Amino acid sequence: MAQQRVKLALIDLSGTLHVDDQPTKGAVEALKRLRQHGVQVKFVTNTTKESVGSLFERLRKIGFELERDEIYGSLGAAAEYVRKNKLNPYYLLTDDARTDMPPNDPDRPLDSVVVGLAPGRFCYDHLNEAFRVLHQKSAKHEVQLVAVHEGRYYKAKDGIALGPGCFVKGLEYSTGVPAVCIGKPNEYFFRSALPDGTDVGDCVMIGDDPNDDCLGAMRIGMKGYLVETGKYQPEMYNDDNRPAVSGIFPTFSDVVQHIITSLHH
After folding, report:
1. Which of 210, 228, 233, 238 has CB atoms 3.0–4.6 Å from 243's, for a disulfide?
2. What pLDDT was estimated at residue 4?
3. STAS domain: from which residue to which, for each copy (predicted)?
């Protein structure tokens, strides 16, 4: 069967292209090669700790060539959701991430909570404040819990670190308010990242999270390639329970080599 041509690669950032301020091995060069072979790229990220502007500056500084509008993040998708639903949220976000979100309206009561990765805000006082906003639900008063994403953990320079998912689940448990999840692996997120008229069969997703990146993309008909440079820990799996993704590769650079090779067959 003829190999389908890859026209667009959706690429995860943290753990795939870089870990903190360090590019993964060969990633800067590999990204250039992918573009040279006519593959369009879009960077899709659940990163909620920093604004798109900060993320863009960081990537440029460590050597990646990209345009700011090539980054599509769950933070931007969440901001769009807040605007569309005219919410006035209590934000459990970093100050930097807040700059991507609509400002609060001081003349209206808080009617929702937005949670991203905000280590400095995950203390009892802030979580209790979020709990109180959500606890006001009644027949007349609708409240919403918006999870920018529900990641369990991520790869930081000093090892695996706790994600926002457990705080979202804790608020759900204590308030009975189910969360609306915006980012990966939500089908809405993947579809809204694709340019109009793109055929999912011509797209691949490259990431370090078996579920949120690869299986999420595969559910809508894309290929999902997993890298071993981030949160995916191959030593925790064996042949029987290895994730059923389209391919597992040591690095992003190895995935690019695979795509380029398949373009020429």
Report:
1. 210
2. 64
3. 1-82
